[in-house]
Amino acid sequence: MNQAIRFHETGGPEVLRWETVEVPAPASGEVTLRHHSVGLNYIDTYHRSGLYPVPLPSGIGLEAAGEVTAVGEGVTELRVGDRVAYAGGPLGAYAQHRNMPADRLVKLPEGISYEQGAAMMLQGMTAQYLLRRTYRVQAGDTVLIHAAAGGVGLIVCQWAKALGATVIGTVGSEEKAELARAHGCDHAILYNREKFADRVREITGGKGVPVVYDSIGKDTFMDSLSCLRPRGLMVTYGNASGPVAPFDPGLLAKMGSLFLTRPTLFGYTAEREDLVAMAQDLFEVVGSGKVKIEVRQRYPLAEAAQAHRDLEARKTTGSTVLEPF
């Protein structure tokens, strides 16, 4: 019997249901997985709430790690018993067992556990494209990362520091500031005590930063723009406080010929060769010890609703996993 979390209407965490879901034999190009660990990500709340609409009823979740238990016709790269992980659609990672397209899976290196795999794929590859593709951070750069004590934030802090950057991060409490500092953040700004834009200007001697990584959205967008130096890049990659309101693009010219991008992990990993290369880059930096993946919260998968409540209340730090068994 396979249990999974599904939702039949959008809304708060209470819409999540623990249901029995049949898993058929894998179709051509698919494999069946037995999940050992499932990742929790903020995008899951967007699907559940309806901010990112999906056909209903629906499974939920985009990230997990597990073992291949059956292989469909035409699958040549994977075999039964392989340890694999993924970060991407189709939705349905909140499940004990499921079928997945084989070309969306990557093999886990021996030194990385299932739990680490589930905790690092989506957040880690997000950090990878932010730091190595959207804006290629170089030694001597100063970068601003919002939610520096979150899952992506802690990875970005460590990785950017390893690249030789000075890292400025925003956080919501002194406890989170200490956590961010312990993971490479040079300047942790408590956004509820001081204006982060003024502090960034102070730290940079008035110059501003070349790039801002902003997953907060509505509440931080305009102030984030004011942190940028001329021709700086604003990377808005999430909407934790809600979507950014429409604005006159002439503002970007007025504030210094700024650049703006709204990337997604799925845009960067649409081609399998990019997915594999990004995962390999992530595995290498984690394997080297420069970036440590720490699971800081664990919930039974059946209690996914509580995990969502805690995530949205900003009670979590770093990576969180859901345990399917």
Description:
By secondary structure, the chain is α/β, with parallel strands linked by helices. It is 30% helix and 26% strand. The radius of gyration is 20 Å and the shape is globular. The chain has ten helices and 16 strands. Helix 2 (114-134) packs across helix 9. It folds into two domains: 3-121 and 272-323, Medium-chain alcohol dehydrogenases, catalytic domain (Quinone Oxidoreductase, Chain A, domain 1, Alpha-Beta Complex); 139-262, Rossmann fold. It has helices at residues 42-49, 114-134, 151-162, 174-182, 196-203, 221-225, 250-254, 265-268, 272-287, 304-312, and strands at residues 3-7, 16-20, 30-39, 58-59, 63-71, 83-87, 97-101, 106-107, 142-145, 166-171, 187-190, 209-214, 228-236, 259-261, 295-300, 319-323. Strand 9, helix 3 (151-162) and strand 10 form a beta-alpha-beta unit. The strands form three sheets. Strands 3, 5, 6, 7, 8, 15 and 16 form a seven-stranded mixed β-sheet that branches. A six-stranded parallel β-sheet has the order 11-10-9-12-13-14, with helices on both faces. It has a three-stranded antiparallel β-sheet with strand order 2-1-4, with no helix packed on it. Residues 11-322 form the Enoyl reductase (ER) domain. Keywords: NADP, Oxidoreductase. This is Quinone oxidoreductase. InterPro entries: ADH-like_C, ADH-like_N, ER, GroES-like_sf, NAD(P)-bd_dom_sf, QOR-like, Quin_OxRdtase/zeta-crystal_CS. It comes from Denitromonas iodatirespirans.
